[in-house]
Amino acid sequence: MIGDGKSLRITHLGCSAFQSSTHSFKLQNILCVPDIKHNLLFIYQFCVDNNISVEFLPWCFLVKDLLTGEIRANGKTKEGVYEWSFVVTPQAFSSLKIALINWYFRLGHPTVFILKTILTKHNLNSSSVSKDFVCNACHCNKSHKLPFSVSTLTSHKPLEIIFSDVWTSPLLFVDGFKYYVIFVDHFTKYIWFYPLKKKSDIKNIFICFKAVVQNYFKQKIVTLYSDNGGEYIALTEFFVIHGISHLTTPPHTPEHNGFVDRCHRHIVETGLSLFIHASLPHIFFVLCFCYRGLSY
Fold first, then answer.
1. Which residue range forms the structural domain that includes residue 228?
2. DSSP state of 32
3. Alpha-carbon distance 146 to 227, whole Å?
4. Which residue, of 105, 177, 219, 272, is most buried by count of CB atoms within 10 Å of its CB?
């Protein structure tokens, strides 16, 4: 941008050096601007790159070594402008300004974080990395699953929709517990956690759970939503007697029960963090899980 506020197009970027009568100077980040009529020197960058200082006098200027003060070059004034005659070699303009998308392709479709790090670390001049930057090829080929539609389930009061799922542990917990079941209320997002010794115990657990929550909320459970696990089959007759609708997910679509799956992940990951921090034996996994399940 020049003094009158106009912007001039930069076509090439590069670096070079030029020789005075006694010394050689480096020029970094040279901008090639075809529409400008005179070469301009950025004094600050020139001083930093060459470890020098520039002293301006009414009739001339002096380029001095920053440490010793030795005069390395000088120039004169002409019509109120400090003029320095030097020739820039052609290789200064050997590199084009590469568009961001081209760097992305050349580097093999990296993540935006890696792309930004490489451009910054190696001073590869390009346009800034936008937060909205997307690559259609990456979206099509790096996605493990197609996007799933947003859930349309709605609830207006507690116990209208209850999600449920059973988690199996690779280890045996204290008191012989091998599983746990959680019930998640869609309206309040509260989680009830029950450890299980056998999956078949879920029938008795649900009967107890139903009595507790219905007494607390003064509401009846309307719908239970689960996957197609066989442990819920034993509750079929109970659901019919008490007017509870039992909805199940279609095969191979855990996204339909995604809310409870995310709760599983929260309980397991946070419970394991508590367990490792406390240095407890493996059999006490369930205590950490129960703590996270009740306080979610």
1. 161-294
2. E
3. 20
4. 177
